[in-house]
Automatic annotation (TrEMBL):
InterPro entries: CYP450_sterol_14alpha_dmase, Cyt_P450, Cyt_P450_E_grp-IV, Cyt_P450_sf. Belongs to the cytochrome P450 family. The lineage of its organism: Eukaryota, Fungi, Dikarya, Ascomycota, Pezizomycotina. Gene3D superfamilies: Cytochrome P450 (1.10.630.10). Its cofactor is heme. Heme binds at C217. This is Cytochrome P450. PANTHER family: 24-HYDROXYCHOLESTEROL 7-ALPHA-HYDROXYLASE, CYTOCHROME P450 FAMILY 7. Keywords: Heme, Iron, Metal-binding, Virulence. It comes from Monilinia fructigena. The keyword Heme applies. GO terms for molecular function: heme binding; iron ion binding; oxidoreductase activity, acting on paired donors, with incorporation or reduction of molecular oxygen; steroid hydroxylase activity.
Length: 284
């Protein structure tokens, strides 16, 4: 799955298989696995997610063949379980926190308030964490590499360009997120209070971390809750700080590889941290 995820952009760019063997081989392996899973009797799939079982039943009722079922399962699994968005945005968010100790302490206080009797109240955390929200939204703005796509239905003139029917139009969100006229002269810099000062920016037409229109990401709320829960658990279990004696240069965004969501860092640029386990808690 990681091989597929790292090179999934090749599929969306329509590269011939001869130039995209890594992603093609990974896709074939996973489709074969998904087909084997779909063939199993329901009694042997008792641990599956409710949604997967429901989808497989519906596919069987309407007579969808096994290979097509496998393709749908692969799409669901990739989009919701292995897509780079959650782990990349978690990386950037935590990196910004550990490189900014005052911000990290403010966020830690918000995270602690989200724990109620040993359980994490994720709804409370998402609704009552302005510092965490600000850092999260700014991380999305700076590192989002997703593109929106639309197909031209009729001759359309934009500027001095005539778009012909059948053409595909790609709209990269990063250009919107780097628009100086919207974000100001410091548009390249991380400002954890940008969205705190002006909550209207969340609805601005130049802020599209989850796409828009018919392609507005349906998993955006779940993704946010997953990231917040992950960060809350990390800071609940450990005292976190940058590891001493390590080159402290902040990681650089990998702008050389096309991205379908949140772009990761240049591969050689890791963030090394010291994690000291805190006092044992009953639950995390």
């Amino acid at each position: 799955m990681l091989d597929f995820n790292d090179s999934a952009w090749m599929v969306f760019f329509g590269l011939p298989e001869i130039f995209s063997s890594k992603v093609a081989n990974a896709r074939k392996t996973m489709q074969k696995t998904m087909a084997q899973f779909a063939r199993l009797p329901e009694s042997e799939r008792i641990g599956q997610a409710w949604g997967i079982g429901t989808i497989l039943k519906a596919q069987e009722i309407v007579g969808i063949d096994i290979e097509s079922r496998a393709c749908m399962l692969l799409l669901i699994y990739w989009a919701h379980s292995a897509n780079s968005n959650e782990y990349n945005i978690s990386f950037w968010l935590i990196a910004h926190l550990v490189y900014n100790v005052p911000l990290m302490e403010r966020v830690r206080n918000e995270l602690e308030a989200g724990w109620k009797d040993g359980d994490l109240d994720i709804k409370y955390l998402c609704a009552n964490s302005p510092n965490l929200d600000g850092a999260f939204q700014e991380s999305l703005r700076l590192n989002g590499g997703a593109m929106m796509s639309r197909q031209v239905k009729q001759p359309t003139m934009i500027g001095d360009k005539l778009l012909q029917p059948g053409s595909n139009v790609l709209m990269p969100s990063r250009q919107l997120h780097m628009n100086e006229s919207v974000w100001g002269q410091d548009y390249k810099n991380f400002d954890a209070e940008r969205f705190v000062r002006d909550k209207g920016l969340l609805k601005h037409s130049s802020y599209r971390p989850f796409g828009g229109g018919i392609s507005y990401c349906p998993g955006r709320v779940m993704a946010k809750e997953q990231v917040y829960a992950f960060v809350a658990i990390i800071f609940r279990r450990f005292d976190v700080k940058l590891a001493p004696g390590i080159n402290g240069k902040f990681p650089i965004l990998d702008e050389s590889t096309p991205s379908l969501g949140i772009t990761g860092p240049v591969k050689s640029m890791d963030v090394f941290m010291d994690l000291t386990e805190r006092e044992k808690l009953d639950q995390y």
